[in-house]
Structures are given as C-alpha cells and as structure tokens.
UniProtKB/TrEMBL annotation:
Coiled coil: none annotated. InterPro entries: ABATE, ABATE_dom_sf, Znf_CGNR. SUPFAM superfamilies: Jann2411-like (SSF160904). This is Zf-CGNR multi-domain protein. PANTHER family: BLL6575 PROTEIN. Residues 143-184 form the Zinc finger CGNR domain. It comes from Streptomyces typhae. It holds the Pfam family ABATE. The lineage of its organism: Bacteria, Bacillati, Actinomycetota, Actinomycetes, Kitasatosporales.
C-alpha cells in the first residue's frame, strides 16, 4: 500500500472482498478513492488475488456498481468487526451482487489459473460479493477485525494460528504502537 505519508508497506487483508475496501470508501474515506475510471478497476483486479484478467471490460455503470458495493461492504464489515447489527440495505446489496454470474476460472496449458474470455465488471462485482458471502458465513467470520491503531481503519481477516492479530501490518501500525509503548516506558 501507498498511504498519503509515502511509507510503502505490505497489507494482506486475507480475503478478496476486503482487498477492495482499500480502494476508497464512504464518507471521509472517499478521499482515498483510487477507482477513478474503468482502467483503475481493471488494474486493481490484476494486482489483487484474482490476478490478471486479460480482456476484462468494465463500463462506467459497472464501475459505479463496484464502488457502491465497496462502500456498503466497508460499512457492513466495520459493523461486523465491532459486533454491531448489520444494516439490511448493505446485506441486500451484497446478496444482489452475488446473484449475478461471477468470473469463470479456467486452467491454462501451463497449469496456471486464468479467467475465461468475456470477463466483465459485473462478473468481477459478483466474484467479490460471493467472496464476501463465503467470508461472512465461513469459519473466519469471527476473525474479521479493524486495525487496533486509533488512526487506521483498515479491515482484515485474522488468519494467524492463535487468532490475536491486532494490526493491519506490523511494518506500519504495529511498529508505531511498539515504538510509542517503548517511548512511554522510557519516560
């Protein structure tokens, strides 16, 4: 990730649907928007755990639908992470997006995974929404967390063995918290 302060660090949220949340968000998080056009959504897909999607076509209305899902998913995930009741509107939006046909995976001759021709923004949207359904109904649903740093709102799945991950990334928020604790004990 490349936050506004310029420090580059690795952030793995643990699920495709949560990777989308780092592209912007609702309200005050709109200032972090990275999906300004269809080409940015295609670039995000290629850099995500989906991998390259050659021939992916995204229209402006599909981009708007992806942003709408992302914003609803952001709020839905934050509510879930903090044990708040889910907003039925967010749940409906996720379920409606998941109902569309997803991207179709295939195996290439070299054994790698790729995507069938004809991939669209709607298929990408459905694939992300289905990942959210799998996450929030699966074994890691209780391990969805928000970074413990007071100034970081990144959401992730704690896939660590003990299940005690607190930070979005140790290289950033974890190290800053440890440095603050160290300075406080020295003072």
């Amino acid at each position: 990730m490349r936050p506004p302060d310029g420090q580059v660090y690795r952030f793995d949220p643990g699920a495709l649907c949560l990777e989308l949340l780092a592209t912007g968000g609702p309200g005050p998080f709109a200032r972090f928007e990275t999906l300004h056009g269809p080409s940015e959504l295609s670039a995000w897909a290629a850099e995500s755990r989906l991998g390259p999607c050659p021939g992916l076509t995204v229209t402006e209305p599909e981009l708007a639908a992806v942003r709408q899902l992302r914003d609803a998913l952001f709020l839905f995930t934050a509510d879930h992470a903090h044990g708040r009741p889910w907003d039925p509107r967010h749940l409906e939006l996720i379920n409606d997006a998941a109902a569309a046909p997803p991207l179709a995976a295939r195996i290439e001759a070299d054994g790698s995974r790729s995507w069938a021709p004809g991939a669209t923004g709607t298929g990408l949207l459905s694939t992300v929404a289905r990942d959210a359904v799998d996450l929030f109904t699966g074994p890691y649903a209780s391990r969805v967390r928000e970074c413990a740093a007071g100034d970081c709102f990144l959401l992730f799945v704690d896939t660590s063995r003990p299940g005690r991950r607190r930070w979005c990334a140790m290289e950033r928020c974890g190290n800053r918290a440890k440095a603050r604790t160290h300075r406080a004990t020295k003072a």
